[in-house]
Amino acid sequence: MPEMIFRVRWPDGTVTDCYSPSLVIRELLEEGAVYGLADFVRISRGALTIASDRVAAKFGFPCSRASRQIAAIDAAAARFTDDPDATVTVVAFT
Questions:
Q1: CA dist 45 → 15, 61, 77 (Å)
Q2: Domain of 70?
């Protein structure tokens, strides 16, 4: 399966590379787009779950790396939950 890295900028300006085991992330997030924090988390979680399910369908087990990426996104986002105006920018897909 084709893997993809999506680079995001968090509200504090830090940039993180995130992993997806499938290109589905490109169908649900747009390069250069700015998302509200909760929307970004929801969309990313959904896309990574779909990607992991595709891995499970093909190989018989879900993608543990996608699960870890969901946890990492949740942890990063938790730092900004007190800011109602927090946004995340999708910088690039690679």
A1: 18, 18, 12
A2: 4-93
Q: Look-up: residue for tokens 């969901």?
A: 70
**pLDDT tens, position by position, 46-76:** 999 999 999 999 999 999 999 999 999 999 9
- Please determine, for residue 1, whether its predicted confidence score (pLDDT) is greater than 70: no
Number of folded domains that form the chain: 1
How far is it, in rounded angstroms, from Cα 52 to Cα 61?
8
Q: pTM of the prediction?
A: 0.93
What is the CB neighbour count within 10 angstroms for residue 85? 8
SS (H, E, C) 52-70: HHHHHHHHCCCCHHHHHHH
User: What are the structure tokens assigned to 46, written together?
Assistant: 């959904």
